[in-house]
Amino acid sequence: MNTEFHLDILITNLSIKIFNLKQFVIIICICIFFANCTSQLSKIENKKNIYIQKYDIAFDRETIYNLNESNYKVHVIRLDSNKDIIFDSVYKPVLSSDGEKLLITKVPDLNDNLKNYREILNLNTMQEQKLEITCKHLYEAWSPDDNLIAFIIYYPGKMLSQIGIIKTDNSDFRILDFSSHILLAPSWTNDGKYIVTSDLKNIYKIGVKQYYSDTINIFTAFGDTCSPSSETKFYYSSDNRYLIFNAYTNKMEMESFLPSPEAIYAYDTQLKKIIRLTPVGMNATDPCLGVNDEIYFTGTTDKKQNLYGIYKVDVNDKKITLVIDKGEHPSCRRY
Predict the structure, then answer these.
(1) By the 8 A CB rule, do 137 and 151 touch?
(2) 38 phi/psi in degrees, rounded to 5
(3) How many CA atoms lie within 13 A of 217 on its CB side?
(4) What is 230-335's CATH topology?
(5) pTM of the predicted protein model
(6) Where are the domains of the chain?
């Protein structure tokens, strides 16, 4: 009887231990599960954190005239925090529409500009990717979704330039079929469906996926108020009412600017009138549009053209503000 009693106790204790062991195993499994969940969430959160930095303006710190004497520097800035990234031995920055990537010219050898090349730099991960465009090209422009880059293809010795498009992974390179033989500095409409360009006679809105063209005659629209140049870019405001651009003023306003200085203009497509946004006495070039349609540009009032800064102006109040001292050729985050 006592033996059976002790056996019952032993079995009971063993059952309790087995039950406790099961509980322990279950608890360990639950802990591992939650640890894995936390780890995955942390990875996801860290991945999110990689891409939250959006920069507002990229610009050259100084004009480059001579490869052997100049120091190439590009600055990228967040205006809300004045966070500034500086890159050496690069120039001609073009900031992506979302402010997370930068298209730049790398200068591996100051004594041989034939080795220069364009690359895309992720500003959060600092990953680099060479832009594989073998033809001569200028004036790149990011699409609103940053999946495409448009640019001008030019042919030395020929009166011919075309619009080229390539995906940012270097695939799907193509040339837009268009009747004009000379197309200049492209930009994109806000919906990403059209490229805006000109041939100094007309401003064109050209369909990217299917052939479409809308035309504004420059002489009819602007008269003798101003004259766009080969470096003029036209940008549509968010509501598509205004075309923002730089052009020669057609007037002798400053002694050192020959034949005439440039100014920033807005063409009101509804009222069919042109508005000058920068004052007499300032040479203004390189406009680009920010997130809220603020217009950033390179400006100077120095007759020797040595002191450039980046200014901001609004199409409504025309108030001009110096944003960055000693900078030029800005490009902006758009969205």
Answers:
(1) yes
(2) -60, -40
(3) 4
(4) Neuraminidase (2.120.10)
(5) 0.80
(6) 54-131, 132-222, 230-335
